[in-house]
Design a protein that fits this description.
The protein is an alpha/beta fold and 508 residues long. It has 13 helices and 17 strands. The longest helix has 18 residues.
C-alpha cells in the first residue's frame, strides 16, 4: 500500500494588510521528501497519520511530499504559494500509482488571486491523481468550507476541541481513511453552509454554546453508520466570497443520514446564533487596573484585537500603552508585567545599543497603523537573543528570531523582529532569563490559546482591544463575504433544509 503525505497550512486574516512570504514557513520547518518522515512523528495531523501507519498490520509505504506550515498571518503572496504548491506537486507527479493521499490543510487560507487556497491545492492535486484516488484532509475547525473543497476531497475532518488537538485530528482522519481502504466503502459526505459569522468570544469548546454544539457532534458520531461530524465555526477575520460557518458529516454508505445530520447540526448553530455573540470583554484601562491589583498567581490579559494566532501582526500597543501609563501610580513591586510586541526597527535599535544601555524607542503601531499607534518610551536593554529555537510540542521546532528584552519599571517588554508561535508561549520569556512565577500578569496575543500558561494561570481578563482580530466585526470593511449574513443583516432568515446536500458517492 502506498499513500502520499503532505501539508500546506496557514490561517489567513484578510484584514491584515501585509503579505506572507516563504520565510514564515521556513520558521516552522519547511520540509520535503524524507525530512517529513524524520521531523513529523508526533507533530500535528501528519504526526497522527504516521502514528496510525505504525499501527497497520500490512506494510504501508509513505510517499513524502512537502510540509509547509506557517500558523496564522496575512494573505500569502501568489509567488510564495506557487513555489509551495510546486514543492508538493513535483514529488506527487513522480510518485506513480498511489492508494491514497493524506493532505493536511487548514481550511481558511487565502492568496492574493484566490480566496480559497485549499480549493486551489485540491484542484491541483486532483489533476495529478485523478478522480478516484482517496483524498483525505484533516482541517482546523475554524476552516471556511467551500463547494470546491467538498467536491474535490473525500474526507474533511475538523478538530474536535479549541484549544486544538492537531495530532488527534490526524489520527481520526487516518483511521477513517484506512477503514475505507480496508473495506472498499467510500464515505458519503453531506454539508451545510450557514449564513452566520460570530466573534471569537465564545470559541472555546469547554463551555457555552460552542461546547453544546461540539458535544452534539460527538453524540451523533456515536450513532451506527456515522463516521464523523465536523462543525466549522469559521474564524471571523476572513472576508471571502464563500465565507460563513459550516458543518460536514461523513457516513458509512448512507447519504440520506449524512444529509439529515448536517441539517440538524446547522439548525442548532443557527438557533444559537445570538448566544455566540455573548461577551465578557473588559475595556483596556479597567483591565490594566485589575492587572495591577492582582495578587494571587498569574493574570492573563488576552489581547483579543491583536491575536497573532488569528492572523494579526502582533504590534498593537493598546495594553502596553496603558501599562506604562498606570505604572507610575502603582506601589513598588518586584512582580513583573510581561508584554510581547513585534517591532523589527526597535529590535535593531536595542541590538545596536547593547545590554545595559538605556534606549528611547517608538514601539509598535507600525504594521497595524489603522487601529493602533506607536508608543514612545525609554527603557533599559536587559537581554538580547538571536536565532533561538524552541520545541513547540505538537507544532514541532520553531524559530523565535531576533528578540530583545526591555525594562521600564516593572513592565518587561519582549520586542520581536517578527511574529510567530512563541509570542503566546512562556518560552519567549524564559529563554531571556525571566521566571513566569515572578510575574503578576502576562499579555497574550490570542483570544483562545491560553493553555501554555496553564501551570501559573489564576485568572483571565479578555481585553476589548481594537485591532485586526477584534471582536467588533462591524469595525471592518466587508466587501466579499456573501450577503445576507447574520448579524450584518439582522432580518436574514434561513432554513437548514435543502442545498447544499449530499454529494453522490459510490456506496458499497
Amino acid at each position: 500500500m502506498r499513500i502520499a503525505l503532505g501539508e500546506i497550512v496557514q490561517e489567513t486574516g484578510t484584514f491584515t494588510r501585509s503579505r506572507m512570504e516563504r520565510d514564515a514557513f521556513e520558521a516552522y520547518g519547511l520540509y520535503q521528501g524524507a525530512e517529513l518522515l524524520e521531523q513529523l512523528p508526533g507533530v500535528g495531523p501528519p504526526g497522527g497519520f504516521l502514528q496510525v501507519v505504525a499501527e497497520q498490520d500490512q506494510p504501508v509505504e509513505v510517499v513524502p511530499l512537502v510540509r509547509a506550515w506557517a500558523g496564522a498571518g496575512p494573505k500569502i503572496l501568489d509567488a510564495t504559494f506557487d513555489e509551495l504548491l510546486e514543492m508538493l506537486l513535483v514529488p506527487l507527479r513522480e510518485a506513480g500509482d498511489l492508494d491514497a493521499v493524506f493532505l493536511s490543510l487548514h481550511g481558511a487560507a487565502s492568496i492574493e488571486r484566490d480566496d480559497d487556497l485549499e480549493g486551489a491545492v485540491l484542484e491541483a492535486v486532483r489533476e495529478v491523481i485523478g478522480p478516484d484516488v482517496p483524498l483525505a484532509c484533516p482541517l482546523d475547525h475554524h476552516a471556511n468550507i467551500t463547494g470546491r473543497m467538498v467536491e474535490l476531497a473525500d474526507l474533511l475532518v475538523g478538530h474536535e476541541t479549541q484549544p486544538h488537538d492537531p495530532l488527534g485530528t490526524g489520527v481520526k482522519t487516518a483511521r477513517l481513511l484506512f477503514e475505507w481502504l480496508a473495506t472498499g466503502r467510500r464515505p458519503e459526505i453531506a454539508w451545510r453552509k450557514i449564513p452566520m459569522i460570530t466573534p471569537q468570544d465564545q470559541f472555546l469548546t469547554s463551555g457555552g454554546p460552542m461546547k453544546a454544539w461540539f458535544d452534539r457532534a460527538r453524540a451523533l458520531e456515536a450513532r451506527d453508520g456515522v463516521l464523523d461530524v465536523s462543525p466549522y465555526p469559521m474564524q471571523p477575520w476572513l472576508d471571502v466570497a464563500e465565507g460563513g460557518w459550516a458543518v460536514v458529516v461523513h457516513t458509512d454508505g448512507d447519504p440520506a443520514l449524512a444529509d439529515e445530520l448536517a441539517a440538524e447540526m446547522a439548525a442548532m448553530a443557527w438557533e444559537s446564533r445570538e448566544a455566540f455573540w455573548r461577551s465578557e470583554r473588559v475595556e483596556v484601562a479597567e483591565a490594566v487596573r485589575r492587572a495591577y491589583a492582582h495578587e494571587d498567581g498569574l493574570l492573563i490579559l488576552s489581547d483579543t484585537g491583536d491575536s497573532v494566532y488569528g492572523g494579526a501582526p502582533g504590534d498593537s500597543t493598546w495594553i502596553l500603552r496603558e501599562l506604562l501609563a498606570q505604572v507610575g501610580s502603582q506601589p513598588e513591586s518586584d512582580r513583573l508585567m510581561l508584554v510581547p510586541i513585534v517591532d523589527p526597527a526597535a529590535v535593531d535599535v536595542a541590538f545596536s545599543a547593547g545590554v545595559g544601555a538605556e534606549v528611547s524607542v517608538s514601539l509598535g503601531g507600525k504594521i497595524d497603523n489603522e487601529f493602533s499607534q506607536p508608543v514612545e518610551t525609554t527603557a533599559r536593554v536587559v537581554a538580547v537573543s538571536e536565532n533561538h529555537e524552541v520545541d513547540a510540542g505538537e507544532r514541532g521546532r520553531v524559530e523565535i528570531g531576533r528578540v530583545v528584552l526591555l525594562k521600564s519599571g516593572t513592565v518587561h517588554i519582549v520586542v520581536m523582529a517578527k511574529a510567530g508561535f512563541a509570542i503566546c508561549h512562556p518560552t519567549l520569556y524564559q529563554h531571556l532569563g525571566l521566571e513566569i512565577d515572578q510575574a503578576r500578569a502576562v499579555v497574550v496575543k490570542t483570544a483562545s490559546n491560553f493553555q501554555y500558561f496553564g501551570a501559573w494561570r489564576r485568572d483571565l481578563v479578555r481585553v476589548d482591544t481594537p485591532g485586526m482580530t477584534q471582536s467588533d466585526l462591524a469595525a471592518f470593511d466587508w466587501t466579499r463575504i456573501p450577503r445576507p449574513m447574520f448579524p450584518f443583516d439582522p432580518d436574514v432568515t434561513w432554513e437548514s433544509t435543502g442545498v447544499p446536500g449530499p454529494r453522490a458517492g459510490t456506496g458499497d
